[in-house]
Amino acid sequence: MTDASTAPTLVVGLGCQRGCPASTLRALLDQALQAHQIGLHEITALASIDLKRDEPGLIELAEQLALPLMFFNSEQLAGYSPRLSHHSQIAFERTGCYGVAESAALALAEQLAQAPAKLLIPRQKYAQATLALAGAA
């Protein structure tokens, strides 16, 4: 068992279409974690863009997992653009940043760990949602 102070800070960034159900987000999360052999218990928090602050599926997922859900505005996320694996023009037109999931994951991991973060799971796309996982040591 790793000591909490040495365990990396792992943050899941999520982007989704309006009305995306928590079950879809959970399926995407479970699939991504399983593929990368990361346990759900290792996740520190969830992150997204402030436009999704009232998105029921995201709120429900955070409650199910008993994880904090933090939001960033597009200006905070835009700074992560050079580090994204994928630049979505549609995301930019809708949100002002090129990738919500990756940017939000990086932003929160760095904020929580007070250290540089890197993408451990680049953007995964699934029907109505995108997911990315960032970690900071």
TrEMBL record:
**What name does UniProt use for this protein?**
Cobalamin biosynthesis protein CobE
What is a biological process (GO) this protein takes part in? cobalamin biosynthetic process
Q: In terms of domain of life, where is this protein from?
A: Bacteria
- Species annotation: Pseudomonas arsenicoxydans
CobE/GbiG C-terminal domain sequence ranges: 10-134
